[in-house]
Specification:
The protein is of the alpha/beta class. The chain contains 11 helices and 8 strands. Helix 1 links the parallel strand 1 and strand 2. Helix 8 runs parallel beside helix 9. The N and C termini lie far apart (39 Å).
């Protein structure tokens, strides 16, 4: 399973990139709004900071209601960083988003269909040509549904139907989520830097390092 970082904060992106485990960045207008910067400018900055990752997401705005409007915005987003081929267009899981996904995928543009909460939605997105599908497990957990089980079912369906779309486990809240979605068959987990820090640590590791340091002295 690969790791994307879910943020628009450049400092967190730089720290995750230096570790050497980062394969991509997911953002959305809400995350960029927290940074008090123009959306397009921050996407361009992210692309420059992570030159060799496979994907940097750029989401169409809620103002884009129709497929045509989404496609128009997508064409502008693709050119933010001079046509950088790692820019992935993030689209909503609805009929208009699927139509835009089919068109953009046909043009060779990477797409990520987001806000997926059922297996059938993931199937539709994959058939529309989505590069990535993003089930939101944390939000399902919030309403007492099993988000990891959804990831497992999507992974099994894609295996049986021989679908190429990659599963991005999104809305990951804590280290146990990371372990469980990896075992469930997610291709990618997109997580905040705080969770990356958490999964790198264990008290016995800290104790061992401290003991080695003491013994060396």
């Amino acid at each position: 399973m690969k790791f994307f970082i879910d943020t628009a904060n450049l400092e967190d992106i730089q720290k995750a990139y230096k570790i050497g485990v980062l394969s991509g960045v997911t953002t959305n207008p809400s995350l960029v709004a927290k940074e008090n910067i123009k959306f397009e400018d921050r996407i361009a900055e992210i692309c420059r900071e992570v030159p060799d990752v496979e994907s940097v997401s750029a989401e169409v705005t809620p103002n884009a209601i129709t497929a045509e409007e989404m496609i128009t915005e997508a064409e502008e987003l693709i050119n933010i960083n001079e046509g950088d081929d790692k820019i992935t267009i993030k689209l909503p899981m609805n009929l208009e988003g699927l139509e835009a996904c089919r068109y953009l995928s046909g043009k060779g543009v990477k797409t990520n269909v987001t806000l997926i909460f059922t297996v059938n939605q993931a199937l539709l997105a994959a058939r529309a040509g989505a590069t990535y599908v993003s089930p939101f497990l944390g939000r399902l957990d919030d309403i007492s549904e099993d988000g990891v089980l959804l990831v497992s079912k999507i992974a099994e369906l894609f295996r049986l139907q021989k679908l190429d779309s990659q599963i991005i486990a999104a809305s990951v809240r804590h280290p146990d989520h990371v372990t469980r979605v990896a075992l469930a068959g997610a291709d990618i987990a997109t997580i905040p830097f705080q969770v990356i820090e958490q999964i790198s640590k264990h008290p016995l590791t800290d104790q061992g390092i401290a003991k080695f340091a003491a013994d060396w002295k």
